Amino acid sequence: MSVSGNTPFSPSSPRNLRVVMAQLDFLVGDIPGNTSRIIEAAKRAYAEQEADIVVFPELCITGYPPEDLLLRPSMDLRVNEALERLQGADLGAAIVVGLPFRKDGRLFNAAVVIEGGEITGRYFKRFPPNYQVFDEKRYFAEGNGAVVVNICGVPIGLTVCEDIWADGPVEDSAAAGARLIINLNASPYDIDKQARRKALLERKSRENQVSIVYANLVGAQDELVFDGGSMVYDHSGSLAVEAPQFTEGLFSVDFLCEHHCQPVSQPLPIEPTLEENVYSALVAGVRDYVNKNGFKSVVLGLSGGIDSAVALAVAVDALGPKRVRAVMMPFRYTSDISLEDAEAQAVAMGVQYDVYSIEPMYESFMTALAEPFEGTAVDTTEQNLQARIRGVMLMSLSNKFGSLVLTTGNKSELAVGYSTLYGDMAGGFDVLKDVPKTLVFRLAWYRNSVSPVIPERVITRPPSAELAPDQKDEDNLPGYDVLDKILNLYVERDFSADAIIAEGFDPADVTRVVRLVDLNEYKRRQAPIGIRITERGFGKDRRYPITSGWKSGN
């Protein structure tokens, strides 16, 4: 345990303290740009909000997660240059920033306090996580002990993200005399994550009789979305302040520090529905991936089906209609309904809309393949050829016009391999990769409640890939209401096949679904990345071997 600072704290002398939570979006690797954002935000918080302390998210100087950039030889040099810039800037307020900090040859995930041009406190994260999407132990050593810093006469304990979920850091800081805990976060979004955070902060603040400032990152980085939702809990475990999710801003809170540091409560934001929350995450994920990677526009195949309809709505809400192009690529099995509905949505959303038949290209391919295919029966090969031609079309438009191809496969389809490698899987970013099919329908109804842009029969008619006459998804799969429940148990909760059957599901359905999930790992490895919204998405969360002798069962 260490205590920094020279100003004594007197519990008999009430003191007002204004803390500003800088809930901002940072770009991984852009250390100079991120440092400039920190300086600008700190100066604005001081000038406009009279901040005493400005709290920034975890690893804000590098962006989160920096991954193997942390192994670059020049990382220490660049971080040190950023620290020197921050110390040399006339900020007015004290700041708490997150950065990688090397000491005695070991790298730590650190929180650093800078006040009056000096580093007055430094804390090393004690519990670097190594589960789900996190692999911090690959890079960071574990810190040891509490750090309590006196700022404006108030003893403040520092913690970083995972530290608040573990036993020890908050408790040790409170025991060392902290009256307020500052927790820097880069906590990624998933469904119900905010509710779990609130339950944790309520318990930690109440049990330790200490107020907690929880400052979280906002924005997206590759498959991860950070939802903000920064909060302040008082010493009794009551939520006093909550910043809106998916919104950048400088959010101030006043504390009256007497026996406790009591935050002044503010009106809380309206609790979003699950559908609104997920939709906001998808919009944030698309917006940041496209903009941070410098794409001018996006293009996607609009089939007249539910998945591409929702993906189009998300893209337009993220980027605006002028940056979105929708392409309908009909074939002989494409229904008139699909053509009508795709056009209706494109017009409603104001995007560029093109129709290019794939019939001539299909006939050319079949002519070229006539000799090797002679004497064989028609099967899924011909269906996959249709999807692959569409993939070539979209990728060609991408190359020519610099547009990112958005794919539209949902989690249910990717789980069981109901997709075509180098066909509908061809692209750069999958909007719905972690969204189960049943939730896709709910998102469509939600988006139409905002403004009616998706034709109703797109949502109500049976889903079909339209790669064969009268084809329906449920010809080859259990109904999505059943399929998604089985997939939730197997993919997200690691139930065995026997355990799923014991839950009351049909053994034949379970056996088939489990086999399809295992069999199609090779496809998912080659799929584009997409936005993670569940506790266990296909990506960093779930890493199964492609080549495996594992047999499903118990």
TrEMBL record:
It catalyses: deamido-NAD(+) + L-glutamine + ATP + H2O = L-glutamate + AMP + diphosphate + NAD(+) + H(+). Its EC number is 6.3.5.1. The active site is at E58, K125, C161. Keywords: ATP-binding, Ligase, NAD, Nucleotide-binding. ATP binds at G301, L302, S303, G304, G305, I306, D307, S308, T408. Gene3D superfamilies: Carbon-nitrogen hydrolase (3.60.110.10), HUPs (3.40.50.620). CDD domains: GAT_Gln-NAD-synth, NAD_synthase. Residues 17-257 form the CN hydrolase domain. SUPFAM superfamilies: Adenine nucleotide alpha hydrolases-like (SSF52402), Carbon-nitrogen hydrolase (SSF56317). Pathway: Cofactor biosynthesis; NAD(+) biosynthesis; NAD(+) from deamido-NAD(+) (L-Gln route): step 1/1. Deamido-NAD(+) binds at N384, E413, K523. L-glutamine binds at Y131, S187, K193. GO terms for molecular function: NAD+ synthase (glutamine-hydrolyzing) activity. It holds the Pfam family NAD_synthase. The keyword ATP-binding applies. In the C-terminal section; belongs to the NAD synthetase family. Belongs to the NAD synthetase family. HAMAP family: NadE_glutamine_dep (MF_02090). PANTHER family: GLUTAMINE-DEPENDENT NAD(+) SYNTHETASE, NH 3 /GLUTAMINE-DEPENDENT NAD + SYNTHETASE. Catalyzes the ATP-dependent amidation of deamido-NAD to form NAD. Uses L-glutamine as a nitrogen source. This is Glutamine-dependent NAD(+) synthetase. It comes from Marinobacter xiaoshiensis. The gene is nadE.
